[in-house]
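Cross-check.
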Amino acid sequence: MTADAHDSDVERQITTLTEIVDALATAVAQLSDRLTRLEKATRSRGQDDTAEGHEPAAWVWFTPPVAEDDPEATDPRITLDTFVTWYNITYVGVEGSRAKPIPHCWRQHPGLAMEIATLAYSWRAANLGASANPREAQYWHHQWRPGFTDRLTREWVHSDCLDGEHRATGVTEHPDRFTLAEQSHDVVS
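Predicted model, tokenized:
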């Protein structure tokens, strides 16, 4: 290949690459504009998933109070405590059914505490804010809640706990990450 042919080939490649980069830059600008318009439209309809966007969806009849609704309260433990109370007054079944109340000693059962946390926050994701979705809400009722109910009595707690008398089972109780952080902070102070 001659020097002139090589230079001509390089120039064609540069021209082609420049056209590709220009097309990509145009596409990115268009996507950025579209995203900005969508964000503005969402804000104007009040569908913000930030702390202000915890409105229940139309199908939600009973809403648990949550810490995130109070700008002064940011501790997820409050959300879980209120979720447990709300769950127990909303989802306990008839006498003899599998739908038992979450026992007061739930924090003393690490696996149960973890499952309650995901149960609470999956309920919130399915039922609150702009991302609420009736299919996800129904899935929560059809899959997550019954599965939790089954595991509550079969895997997490002893029947004594369900009767109001805590009885240690399984993994030894240990502090949650929030309590550990508080203890660490107290030691440093």
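Helices lie at 3-44, 76-90, 110-127, 134-156, 159-162, 177-188. The chain has two domains: 1-45, 67-188. Passed to J.P. for a second look.
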